[in-house]
Amino acid sequence: MKPECVITGMGLVLPCGTGIEAASASWRSQQPCFRQLPPELGSGLGAICDVSTAGIIPPILNRRLDRVSRFAWVATHHALLDADLDPTQIRDRIGLAVGSVTGGIEASEQFLRPYLAKGPAGASPMIFPNSVAVAISGHISTAFGLRGCSTTQLAREACFFAALDQAMRWLRLGMADVMVVIGTDGLSPLFGELLQRSRLSARHGLPEVGSRRGLLPGEGAQAFILETRDRAETRRARIRASIRGLTSCAPATPDPKARGLALAEAASALTPIPPDAWIAGSSGHPILDEVECALRSRHPRWPQPRFPKTLWGEFCGSGGQLLAAAAVDLAPSVLITAPASLGAQFATAMEKP
Q1: N or C: which end of the chain has fewer CB within 10 A?
Q2: Cα–Cα distance between 269 and 247 in angstroms, integer?
Q3: Between residues 207 and 224, which one has the greater pLDDT?
Q4: What's the pLDDT at 287?
Q5: CA 330, 84, 19, 167 torsion: positive or negative?
Q6: Angle at CA of residue 86, ends 104 and 95, nearest 5°
Q7: How would you class 313 by CB atoms within 10 Å of its CB: exposed for 0-12, middle for 13-18, buried for 19 or more?
Q8: How far is the C-alpha of 116 from the C-alpha of 106, rounded, in Å?
Q9: Can you tell me the distance from the alpha carbon of 322 to that of 249, in angstroms, rounded to the nearest whole number?
């Protein structure tokens, strides 16, 4: 029998604010957090995070970090505090799993634009280390002294759940006693331009599932402390939620019908009885909506889905906001579905104490 994995700590950096209370209040009110983007982050509407790093990140290091790394650092800091965990005591047994869509994009743009304008003399060696997504895990490992196994996942919308899947495998194999699982994303002009030119972002209005308007970009980070139930109970940790199952299914072809069938198979494997709540990953763009909406006809007894991405933005931690919403939701059992435009379709089941 596989050991049960539980969440003993959370740190949330979201457009609605920093911390669990801010996320809970936003989730209850269901008020979208979008506003006009400032020029340094792009154009159009977006869900922006205003987060203070004072007392958390040393100023000299803060200036050298990109947005995704700052968000991840602050989220990890709060998650470890929430779990009442001192990483220095078991640093060799704490692993790290990171998922990000936008990791490295902001720094790459800042590095390349002066280079293209001025040649090699314009390239800054201070910026270059952040131009790869794996820099996020490097910053977090160094900051908190984590020496265990580490992975960085870049699976587009499914980044966070791919990282969560790997983290749970390592815990169950005994390769780590504790896993820090992080989803983090940051806005930048280049990322916004990529979304607009690929016609993925919304042209007008807020996201509305089935509207075909497109998604609206968001940013933030969500960090979760994972342990096996036996270890959490031994150290008398508060268990915020248990992950009763996580499964994925890869479609044979990338068309919506095949992806919808794969997601339905993944979700059905976790739900012998209807959940109390359903957290959905749709965002207003047909690439994802058509996949997930098909589940309604297959499971008419499921509750009406709730859509965190219409509040906090798409990406925003590459799916980590879905788990955050499930964790702050008051329902005792929650199903999370995470449709992806390519590759594996993920579903997760969570229960509260």
Answers
A1: N
A2: 8
A3: 224
A4: 81
A5: negative
A6: 45
A7: buried
A8: 16
A9: 18
Q: Report the distance separating Cα 47 and Cα 314, nearest Å.
A: 9
Token pair in block for residue 353 = 């104490």
Q: Tokens standing for 336?
A: 């999370």
* pLDDT tens, residue by residue, 22-49: 999 999 999 989 889 998 898 888 999 9
Q: Which two tokens stand for residue 110?
A: 């800042």
CA nearest neighbour of 150 among 136, 131, 130: 136
**Which domains are delineated in the chain?**
5-234 (3.40.47.10), 242-351 (3.40.47.10)
d(CA 102, CA 49) in angstroms, rounded, equals 15
Amino acid letter at 92?
D
Please name the residue that has the structure tokens 């993925």: 200
Q: Which two tokens stand for residue 213?
A: 């308007």
Phi-psi region of 68 (alpha: psi -120 to 50; beta: other; left: phi over 0): alpha
Whether 95 and 312 have beta carbons less than 8 Å apart is answered as no
The string of pLDDT tens digits covering residues 149-181 is 999 999 888 899 999 999 999 999 999 999 999
Alpha carbons 143 and 58: distance in angstroms, whole number: 10
Q: Kindly report, residue by residue over 45-98, the tens digit of the pLDDT.
A: 899 999 999 999 999 999 999 999 999 999 999 999 999 999 988 989 999 999
Indicate the pairing of strand 241-249 with strand 345-351. Answer: antiparallel
| Model pTM above 0.70 | yes
Angstrom distance (rounded) from CA 200 to CA 285: 7
Three-class SS of the chain? CCCCEEEEEEEEEECCEECHHHHHHHHHHCCCCCEECCHHHCCCEEECCCCCCCCCCCHHHHCCCCHHHHHHHHHHHHHHHHCCCCHHHCHHHEEEEEECCCCCHHHHHHHHHHHHHHCHHHCCCCCHHHHCCCHHHHHHHHHHCCCCCEEEECCHHHHHHHHHHHHHHHHHCCCCCEEEEEEEECCCHHHHHHHHHCCCECCCCCCCCCCCCCECEECEEEEEEEEEHHHHHHCCCCCCEEEEEEEEECCCCCCHHHHHHHHHHHHHCCCCCCCCEEECCCCCCHHHHHHHHHHHHHCCCCCCEECCHHHHCEECCCCHHHHHHHHHCCCCEEEEEECCCCCCEEEEEEECC
